[in-house]
What we know:
Layout: H1 9-37, H2 43-70, H3 78-84, H4 89-104
Helix pairs in contact: 1-2, 2-3
Amino acid sequence: xxxxxxxxxDDKLLLDRLKSTIWYTVQKITAEECKQLGVTASPEYAAALxxxxxxxxxxxxxxxxxxxxxxxxxxxxxxxxxMVCRRNTGLQEVIDDYIKKLLEE
Length: 105
């Protein structure tokens, strides 16, 4: 992780559990996709993809916290997620549609 935030022991345990869960999910999705496509993926591929997803999630968390803090809030809102997605119009549309759907329920 490239961020400089200091993690407590409890944080580190939670991060380990998160990474394990991501690894399990990546393995499961990779196996399903490989079966469907008739290809194989090495364990190193799944491990690298797990690291990529994990690091993206951690970075996303830091970004969301930063946007909320900049807005002088302690709670992350959908507006913070929109800020993260502002340079990716495709993702921004998906997020906007999802938020609209949630508000209609």
